[in-house]
Amino acid sequence: MAIALAGVVAGCVLAYLSGITEAAQPPVFNPPANPYSNGIYANGIVESDQRSGENINVYPEVSGTVKQILVAEGQEIRKGMVLLVIDDSIQRAAAEQLQSQAQAAFALLEELKAQPRKETLDVAEAQVASAQASLKTAQDELDKQRAACDLNPRTISKDALDSAANAAASAQANLEVARKQRDLTKAGAWSYDIRNQERQYNALVNSHLSASALLSKYTLRAPSDAVVLAINSTAGSFVSGQGTYDTYTQGMTPVLVLGSPHARLNVRCYVDEILVPRLPSPARMKAQMSVRGSNVKLPLQYVRMQPFVSPKIELSDERLEQVDLRVLPVIFRLEKPKDLNLYPGQLVDVYIGE
């Protein structure tokens, strides 16, 4: 009997407790509401304030291994500041080799222009004097032979007389050769040789300039005043003109992403193509942004419209995604409050009205 009574009491208590309805907890934040009577909704993504385009994506023009990164994420940088250095040892050696070849070609060009060298000309003059002396000796010997033959033809054989005459003729020819060699030396380098050497020197100089210009590409510099938003590479990583490999997305990403140093931010909204006819004219367009995870709502100022409807893959970044929906990008400007955490790349909800 007692057990049955206890069961009845327990059942009554359980029924009472089950009938108690607790009050619903208030939401942490309210869902975004349309502030306009005929407003349209669009997904938005925060980006830096640019006159055209989106954030500044930095790609190297050469391939190589990252040697050093000289900036940090969130750092404000100035135009021309070194951001990243790629290993340039091979290209630097090639540039130095071409520079040495150009210097050697220039030295040879100066040598051609400086001809005739005084010492070389002195040697040519000495050779002429020696040839003249040899000719005088041979001519004197021929005169003696002829004089002796005139006195007594039997004392000098015809062979000896012919040999003396040949020796004198040979000495005369050697003198002419020595004189022509002296004149050639005195004339200096041939103008065609000088022009040819000048062209070789200019070609090597241009090759060195080209190699030096390519060498400078191994150092990435800031294209403008900006803020470093993201560094997607590390020292030792391989980079190319396509960027660097991202192990998380398994795709190629920019080596660095830069943003505008202004306090303003832009919000790029993607308007569904079926809502495009309902867009108000830019002169009457207004917009309000809701920050997800909070009750913060901020007004937006119309900046420009990208007049090109494209597939909606920008928010997911899935390049192989099959998307039927197409969207129209509309860019608004946002004055960032100082007490609000808001960063480029953040997704927001936007209502556009008039």
How does this structure look, described?
There is one protein chain. The strands form four sheets. The protein has a six-stranded antiparallel barrel. A four-stranded antiparallel sheet has the order 2-11-7-4, with no helix packed on it. A hairpin with a 4-residue loop joins strand 9 (244-246) and strand 10. Helices cover 38% and strands 25% of the residues. It has helices at residues 2-19, 89-114, 118-151, 158-187, 191-216; strands at residues 40-48, 56-58, 64-69, 76-77, 82-86, 219-221, 226-231, 238-239, 244-246, 251-253, 256-259, 264-272, 286-291, 297-305, 310-311, 326-335, 347-353.
Task: Give a quick precis of the structure.
The protein has 354 residues and is an alpha+beta fold. The chain has five helices and 17 strands.
Average pLDDT reading: 87
What is the number of E strands? Answer: 17
Assign the CATH topology of the domain at 33-49 and 262-353: Elongation Factor Tu (Ef-tu), domain 3
**How many H/I helical runs?**
5
Q: Say which CATH homologous superfamily of the domain at 33-49 and 262-353 is assigned.
A: Efflux pump adaptor protein, beta barrel domain
CATH architecture of the domain at 33-49 and 262-353: Beta Barrel
Strand content: 25-35%
Euclidean distance between termini CA atoms: 77 Å
Structural class, please? alpha+beta
- SSE sequence, one letter per element: HEEEEEHHHHEEEEEEEEEEEE
Q: Supply the CATH class of the domain at 33-49 and 262-353.
A: Mainly Beta
Oligomer: single chain
Shape: rod-shaped
Helix content: 25-40%
Main beta-sheet annotation: 6 strands, antiparallel, barrel
Strand order of the largest sheet: 1-12-16-14-13-17
Low-confidence stretches: none
